[in-house]
Amino acid sequence: MITEATVLDALSGVRDPELDEPITDLKFISHLRVGDDAVEVTLRLPTPFCAPNFAYLMAHDAREALLSVPGVQEARVTLDDHHTADEINAGMAGGLGFDTTFHSFEETEGESLDELRDIFRRKAFVSRQERLCRTLLADGYSSAQLANMMLGEVPDSEAKEKYLSRREELGLDTSAEAPFVVDPDGRQIPEEAVVQHLRFARVTRLSIEANAGFCRGVLAARSGDTPVLSEKEASA
Amino acid sequence: MYEKDGEKYYVIDGHTHFWNAGPDNYNKYGKMFIDCFYGYHSALSPEEYLWSEEKFGKYTEEDILHDLFEIGYVDKAIFQPTYLLDFFPNGFNTTAQDAEIAEKHPDKFILNSSFEPRLGEQGLAEFEEKHKRYGFKGVKLYTAEWHEDSKGWKLNDYWSKRYLEKCLELGVTNIHVHKGPTIRPLNRDAFDVHDVDHVATEFTDLNFIVEHVGLPRLEDFCWIGVQEPNVYGGLAVAMPFIYSRPRYFAQIIGELLYWLDEDRILFASDYAIWQPKWLVEMFVDFQIPEDMQGEYGTLTPDIKRKILGLNAAKLYDVEVPSEIPQEEPVMAGGEPEYPEKPL
Predict the structure, then answer these.
(1) C-alpha A156: how far from its chain's center?
(2) CATH: 3.10.129.10, 3.30.300.130, 3.40.50.10490, 3.30.470.20. Which one for A4-112?
(3) Least C-beta-crowded within 10 Å: which of A68, B136, B302, B313?
(4) Chain A residue numbers touching B36 (CB-CB < 8 A)
(5) Which residues 72-111 of chain A have a CB within 8 Å of chain B?
(6) What number is the ipTM of this complex?
(7) Bridge partners for A182 per DSSP
(8) Does residue B35 fall inside a structural domain?
(9) CA A28 distance to own-chain centroid
(10) pLDDT digits over B220-258, tens only?
């Protein structure tokens, strides 16, 4: 039997590519119904004008995640109150690809979303690396030490796990002997450049976190909840 | 003018609207658009400044004069027309709509205009006519605007550059760019700001003020700001973080001061999404939290004065009363050599 918990667990593997957080944590799932061998999920994003390409990616990834749950024969994902809801819902119901889903938008012809995904995987990687380096610097490591560390020398932590997962998504070396501080193409950052590298990475991390905070607040206001004013949640 | 603890601040609100987004003037998309704005308004405003949806859709001349000038400390407000004709049949707030108030209060408003590059040659002539009629020094460009089959445009498109050349010729030197979400092409990042980089390099005599400091792409905006001295950051949308997420606000301001400098950041409320009164009060009271001062330093009254009004005054040749201290600019920006390109 399919349980709600199993379904939610599968959905927690789906991230908003722009915010680098699970759609379950972001509260994008407004409705969930589990039947004998079918699951229905409705996604509600913070605004009707959230970028349609990301909306498509999340709906698509959610559908794939649902179909990966043992016992699920049918998965229905719909997007609620969005300016491209009709297109995306039809695309999901028919298992259409991105180009076909948006065929009425002439500009998409013949192009795929791989490049877009890649841009945001790189950003997520940079941001996770900065977060991890930040905790290490706070623990007393110097930037020169970070520059010369191998992955295996980095103490285990949740931040490290997340960093490794983003690193793996980019197809970069995650072995214990691989250099720790690398750019999104896998090139090691020279010792003298590490401070500046992290300084720029910090803006990427800040941008992603601030956006996530903004989106959470707007979604809460849209749902009629008290706006989330605590800073703790966003930095968790 | 705002005065606190013996310090005086001249205030220019760099981004304001007088819109009509009531039910008599929206279609399905217009309704979604104003709902989206209302979401921003309700998510990030202090409770005592919350409006009803009805009032938010259409407010009065009395409201705007009261909120900006009677209680909001604003000395001058810049109108940034946003047409959105495919969403609001009579326009969201066009130059003509804004001019109705601006011309009654020429000492209070700076009226900007806009152009639509997809109108080609004919639009270019109309733009010139509009400039003759209103004599503006700046335009607000909304690259995500829909027009016929098109769902957005880029600053470095052929026709866009033709219009920028016209701006140069007419002395329209302040180009306010409002990013996204652009839908074309759909498989690209809707908030991409890299087209600003191209035109800022090509049109060095124009100033490009990127509204909401490039958010949600702050990192790309900062990158461009380092390369291009004629790129500025408008604080609309970033400002209200000061209330709900002050630590993020501190970091955003801290990064902007580092990557750009204190001379290229402009205060804005984005009225009527947010109101200048609380933003000005909180900004003047604001300080970088102690645990972050090692990284970001502190905000002095001189820095705040520049952001609140002096920087915009320079761009718009506004004469600032002599009682406001005006110091020579101190360059605070970094000149990073690494990375050679955005990560």
Answers:
(1) 22
(2) 3.30.300.130
(3) A68
(4) 47-49
(5) 81, 83, 98, 102, 105-108, 111
(6) 0.86
(7) A188
(8) yes
(9) 12
(10) 999 999 999 999 999 999 999 999 999 999 999 999 999
